[in-house]
Write a structure and sequence with these properties.
The protein is mainly β. The chain has 2 domains: about 45 residues, no CATH class; about 110 residues, Roll (2,3-Dihydroxybiphenyl 1,2-Dioxygenase, domain 1), CATH 3.10.180.10. The protein has 2 helices and 11 strands; from the N terminus they run ββββαββββαβββ. A hairpin with a 4-residue loop joins strand 5 and strand 6.
Length: about 170
Protein backbone atom coordinates (compact mmCIF):
# COMPACT_ATOMS: atom_id res chain seq x y z
CA UNK A 1 0.00 0.00 0.00
CA UNK A 2 1.53 3.37 -0.99
CA UNK A 3 1.99 6.07 1.63
CA UNK A 4 -0.82 8.60 1.93
CA UNK A 5 -0.03 11.77 0.04
CA UNK A 6 -0.90 15.17 1.47
CA UNK A 7 -1.72 17.64 -1.30
CA UNK A 8 -0.77 21.27 -0.63
CA UNK A 9 -3.54 23.76 -1.29
CA UNK A 10 -3.66 24.70 -4.95
CA UNK A 11 -0.98 22.20 -6.01
CA UNK A 12 -2.16 19.45 -8.39
CA UNK A 13 -0.84 15.93 -7.96
CA UNK A 14 -1.04 13.38 -10.80
CA UNK A 15 -1.54 9.66 -10.41
CA UNK A 16 -1.26 7.15 -13.24
CA UNK A 17 -3.68 4.25 -12.82
CA UNK A 18 -4.26 1.31 -15.15
CA UNK A 19 -7.43 2.57 -16.83
CA UNK A 20 -7.29 6.36 -16.61
CA UNK A 21 -5.29 9.38 -15.59
CA UNK A 22 -6.41 10.82 -12.25
CA UNK A 23 -5.46 13.99 -10.44
CA UNK A 24 -6.31 15.32 -7.02
CA UNK A 25 -5.85 18.90 -5.94
CA UNK A 26 -7.02 21.08 -3.11
CA UNK A 27 -8.89 24.11 -4.36
CA UNK A 28 -7.34 27.37 -3.36
CA UNK A 29 -10.19 27.93 -0.91
CA UNK A 30 -10.15 24.48 0.66
CA UNK A 31 -12.20 21.77 -1.04
CA UNK A 32 -10.47 18.66 -2.26
CA UNK A 33 -11.49 17.44 -5.70
CA UNK A 34 -10.19 15.13 -8.38
CA UNK A 35 -10.26 15.06 -12.15
CA UNK A 36 -10.13 12.00 -14.36
CA UNK A 37 -9.52 11.30 -18.04
CA UNK A 38 -11.40 8.30 -19.36
CA UNK A 39 -9.64 5.58 -21.29
CA UNK A 40 -10.94 1.99 -21.16
CA UNK A 41 -13.04 2.81 -18.08
CA UNK A 42 -15.42 5.49 -19.35
CA UNK A 43 -17.37 6.08 -16.13
CA UNK A 44 -21.01 5.89 -15.20
CA UNK A 45 -23.37 4.62 -17.86
CA UNK A 46 -26.46 5.16 -15.72
CA UNK A 47 -27.45 8.24 -13.74
CA UNK A 48 -30.50 9.79 -12.12
CA UNK A 49 -32.03 6.39 -11.38
CA UNK A 50 -32.48 5.08 -7.80
CA UNK A 51 -29.08 4.05 -6.44
CA UNK A 52 -27.06 6.11 -8.93
CA UNK A 53 -25.40 9.51 -8.96
CA UNK A 54 -27.85 12.33 -9.64
CA UNK A 55 -25.72 15.44 -9.20
CA UNK A 56 -22.52 16.85 -7.70
CA UNK A 57 -22.44 20.05 -5.71
CA UNK A 58 -19.73 22.19 -4.18
CA UNK A 59 -20.55 24.09 -1.02
CA UNK A 60 -18.09 26.93 -0.49
CA UNK A 61 -17.32 29.82 1.82
CA UNK A 62 -16.20 31.95 -1.15
CA UNK A 63 -18.56 31.72 -4.13
CA UNK A 64 -16.98 34.81 -5.69
CA UNK A 65 -13.65 32.99 -6.03
CA UNK A 66 -14.97 29.45 -6.54
CA UNK A 67 -17.26 30.15 -9.49
CA UNK A 68 -14.62 31.63 -11.83
CA UNK A 69 -12.10 29.01 -10.66
CA UNK A 70 -14.28 26.11 -11.84
CA UNK A 71 -15.36 27.97 -14.98
CA UNK A 72 -11.70 28.34 -15.93
CA UNK A 73 -10.52 24.87 -14.87
CA UNK A 74 -13.33 22.96 -16.61
CA UNK A 75 -14.34 25.38 -19.35
CA UNK A 76 -17.97 25.24 -18.30
CA UNK A 77 -20.63 27.90 -18.45
CA UNK A 78 -22.68 28.97 -15.46
CA UNK A 79 -26.18 30.16 -14.75
CA UNK A 80 -27.13 31.72 -11.42
CA UNK A 81 -30.59 30.87 -10.12
CA UNK A 82 -32.40 32.67 -7.29
CA UNK A 83 -33.74 29.99 -4.96
CA UNK A 84 -35.81 32.33 -2.80
CA UNK A 85 -33.16 34.38 -1.06
CA UNK A 86 -30.12 32.27 -1.87
CA UNK A 87 -28.36 32.06 -5.21
CA UNK A 88 -27.45 28.70 -6.72
CA UNK A 89 -24.92 28.37 -9.53
CA UNK A 90 -25.44 25.65 -12.15
CA UNK A 91 -22.36 24.52 -14.11
CA UNK A 92 -23.07 23.29 -17.65
CA UNK A 93 -21.04 21.67 -20.40
CA UNK A 94 -22.71 22.71 -23.62
CA UNK A 95 -26.43 22.61 -22.88
CA UNK A 96 -26.10 19.91 -20.20
CA UNK A 97 -26.18 20.91 -16.52
CA UNK A 98 -23.49 18.87 -14.73
CA UNK A 99 -22.97 20.28 -11.22
CA UNK A 100 -23.89 23.05 -8.83
CA UNK A 101 -22.34 25.52 -6.42
CA UNK A 102 -23.84 27.04 -3.29
CA UNK A 103 -22.49 29.63 -0.84
CA UNK A 104 -22.29 28.30 2.73
CA UNK A 105 -24.40 30.51 4.98
CA UNK A 106 -23.39 31.44 8.52
CA UNK A 107 -26.51 29.74 9.94
CA UNK A 108 -25.32 26.38 8.55
CA UNK A 109 -22.71 26.25 11.31
CA UNK A 110 -19.09 25.19 11.12
CA UNK A 111 -18.92 23.23 7.89
CA UNK A 112 -15.93 23.16 5.57
CA UNK A 113 -15.99 23.89 1.87
CA UNK A 114 -16.47 20.55 0.13
CA UNK A 115 -17.85 18.69 -2.87
CA UNK A 116 -20.90 16.53 -2.18
CA UNK A 117 -22.28 13.72 -4.34
CA UNK A 118 -26.08 13.61 -4.60
CA UNK A 119 -27.55 10.12 -5.01
CA UNK A 120 -30.97 9.45 -6.53
CA UNK A 121 -33.34 7.44 -4.31
CA UNK A 122 -36.92 6.27 -4.77
CA UNK A 123 -38.04 7.64 -1.37
CA UNK A 124 -36.00 10.28 0.47
CA UNK A 125 -37.50 9.64 3.92
CA UNK A 126 -36.97 5.89 3.60
CA UNK A 127 -33.36 6.42 2.49
CA UNK A 128 -32.70 8.68 5.50
CA UNK A 129 -34.19 6.02 7.79
CA UNK A 130 -31.87 3.39 6.26
CA UNK A 131 -28.85 5.70 6.72
CA UNK A 132 -29.70 6.20 10.39
CA UNK A 133 -30.46 2.49 10.98
CA UNK A 134 -27.01 1.67 9.53
CA UNK A 135 -25.28 4.09 11.93
CA UNK A 136 -25.17 7.18 9.72
CA UNK A 137 -26.13 10.75 10.61
CA UNK A 138 -28.82 13.10 9.34
CA UNK A 139 -27.48 16.65 8.99
CA UNK A 140 -30.33 18.39 7.17
CA UNK A 141 -33.81 17.55 5.98
CA UNK A 142 -35.56 15.81 4.56
CA UNK A 143 -36.83 18.96 2.87
CA UNK A 144 -38.51 19.96 -0.38
CA UNK A 145 -36.50 21.72 -3.10
CA UNK A 146 -39.01 23.59 -5.22
CA UNK A 147 -39.18 22.08 -8.69
CA UNK A 148 -36.45 19.54 -7.88
CA UNK A 149 -37.55 16.99 -5.29
CA UNK A 150 -37.19 15.98 -1.67
CA UNK A 151 -33.60 15.85 -0.41
CA UNK A 152 -31.52 15.33 2.72
CA UNK A 153 -27.87 15.75 3.70
CA UNK A 154 -26.52 12.71 5.53
CA UNK A 155 -23.21 11.06 6.41
CA UNK A 156 -22.03 7.49 6.69
CA UNK A 157 -20.83 6.17 10.09
CA UNK A 158 -17.29 7.37 9.29
CA UNK A 159 -18.32 10.98 8.57
CA UNK A 160 -18.36 11.06 4.76
CA UNK A 161 -21.22 13.41 3.87
CA UNK A 162 -23.48 12.97 0.87
CA UNK A 163 -26.97 13.90 -0.21
CA UNK A 164 -29.99 11.87 -1.27
CA UNK A 165 -32.81 13.13 -3.48
CA UNK A 166 -36.10 11.66 -4.68
Amino acid sequence: MPEETVYPTGQPAWADVTTSDAAAAAGFYGELFGVWQAREHIGAQLAKEPGTLNWAEVQTHDRGAAQPFYERVFGCTTETIDTGGDEYVVFSVGDTPVAGLVQIRADWGEIPSAWSPVFQVADCDAAVARVQEAGGTLYHGPAELAGTGRFAVVADPWGAAFQVIA
